[in-house]
Specification:
Elements (H helix, E strand, L loop, with lengths): L5 E4 H4 E4 L17 E4 L6 E5 L11 E5 L5 E4 L4 E2 L4 E6 L6 H10 L19 E4 L2 H45 L4 E3 H4 L4 E4 L13 E4 L15 E4 L3 H7 L6 E4 L20 E3 L3 E5 L6 H8 L2 H7 L14 H4 L3 E3 L3 H44 L6 H8 L7 H13 L1
Parallel strand pairs: 3-7, 12-15
Antiparallel strand pairs: 1-9, 2-8, 3-4, 5-6, 5-8, 10-17, 11-16, 12-13, 14-16
Helix pairs in contact: 2-9, 3-9
Length: about 400
């Protein structure tokens, strides 16, 4: 602990205002409207409203989710989505709101109990406060470093999006020159295609056939026993629902999402039953399952699926009635294997780049926290920068600053 810093609580610096009178009345948002509607979570701006009453304008402020403890710094007028937050305001004009916000990002608490946290826990949390002059210097240095970090992060996310475009370009190119077409309805004669209904099969005694949970389905490449629960079912149901290597799995809640990395079951050596959110396609020997699988997420099929979207959602539920009529490009099995090899040779490079980007984003996230940690343990500024703060004409000790803030708060 730096000797010239002093201990304080968040409630010394921040008071709160209930959001009730700032809650938006209508959720008919439109980007052409002027006033943003905010939430303290990751989505932050839920939309824009044209309402003119009940707009919060005591800025800057911090909005705090009273249940998750997520927070956002806000320096523009706004309305809010719900009452599950506190709007935090300074207790004194001497409070540096930027510094208080960054302090909140470092001083996180566990929020796994469903209760309101600001009054009962967070407001009383203690941290160290430097002088006002040093606070300004710390905030400036944090923002300088994080600004550079954010630019790098933005470039990485842009590269991520470009990879998505590239993947779709690969899939588009792979199938666009094939002239012959068929449908899954036509393939169905020699295949097992169906939406599995396995609800009610679970047996709490832990006996019966292995049943794969939905939250474990994307681990299907290497299924381990601990990933499974057991159900009682007869041999006919096992035969009907059990997975086999080469099965194509689709998440019916999202028409474009294949389960797992490619949607293909690999290395199944156990009998596995899966739940009613998963559709299985089992093709016959005339088809390479990867050839079908990659087509189902290609632009060629996605364009066909667009007509099944509802006006209220960006995706559509995928059922047999809209799956079977889909047109698929086909060719002989030898050429199917060749096309799959060409696709995977390109996508494997794409996957390696994607992994490197993900690792870099994680490092950037860790570096951001490291910057904030150094800021609040007093080691972010150099000895020369600290000396310059103490030599400033308006310098006063942190303990004196806190006394003035408390006195103004008590008024």
């Amino acid at each position: 602990m730096r000797e010239d810093w002093t201990e304080c609580c968040f409630e010394d610096l921040l008071d709160y205002e209930q959001p009730t009178k700032y809650i938006v009345e209508s959720t008919d948002y439109n980007d052409s409207f002027k006033t943003p509607v905010l939430t303290a979570g990751k989505s932050f701006i839920k939309g824009y409203t044209n309402e003119t009453e009940g707009i919060f304008d005591n800025l800057p402020t911090i909005i705090f989710d009273d249940f998750t403890t997520a927070s956002q710094f806000v320096n523009f007028k706004f309305k809010v989505k719900s009452s599950a937050m506190k709007i935090l305001v300074p207790t004194s004009k001497l409070v540096n709101m930027d510094f208080a916000y960054y302090a909140m990002q470092v001083n996180q608490i566990r929020s796994d109990t469903h209760k309101r946290y600001w009054i009962s826990v967070y407001a009383k949390k203690k941290f160290l406060l430097p002088s006002a002059v040093e606070q300004d210097s710390i905030v400036s240095k944090i923002e300088e470093l994080i600004s550079d970090l954010d630019k790098g992060t933005a470039d990485l996310k842009k590269a991520q999006n470009q990879l998505k475009v590239y993947r779709q370009a690969v899939l588009k190119k792979a199938f666009e020159n094939l002239e012959k077409e068929t449908t899954l309805e036509e393939i169905k004669e020699d295949s097992l295609i169906g939406l599995v209904r396995a609800s009610g099969l679970q047996n709490s005694n832990g006996e019966g056939t292995a049943y794969l949970k939905m939250d474990k389905i994307d681990m299907i490449g290497n299924i381990e026993l601990e990933d499974l629960v057991y159900v009682e079912t007869n041999e006919d149901e096992i035969k009907k629902y059990a997975l086999k290597t080469g099965d194509i799995l689709i998440n019916t809640r999202n028409s474009y999402e294949l389960v797992g990395k490619t949607g293909i079951v690999r290395n199944i050596n156990k009998t596995v039953v899966f739940n009613n959110n998963i559709m299985r396609i089992r093709v016959n020997e005339s088809y390479d399952p990867y050839f079908i699988c990659y087509q189902l997420i290609s632009p060629f099929v996605r364009k066909q699926m667009d007509k099944f979207k509802k006006a209220t959602t960006s995706v559509c539920a995928l059922y047999q009635r809209n799956l079977f009529p889909l047109k698929l490009k086909v060719t002989d099995i030898k050429e199917q294997h060749q096309i799959v090899q060409e696709i995977e040779s390109r996508l494997s490079v794409c996957d390696k780049v994607k992994q490197n980007i993900s690792q870099s984003l994680e490092k950037a996230k860790a570096l951001r926290q490291s910057i904030l940690k150094k800021a609040f343990d007093g080691t972010l500024l150099s000895a020369e920068e600290i000396a310059a703060c103490k030599a400033a004409k308006d310098y006063e000790s942190a303990s004196l600053l806190l006394k003035k803030i408390k006195a103004e708060k008590n008024k």
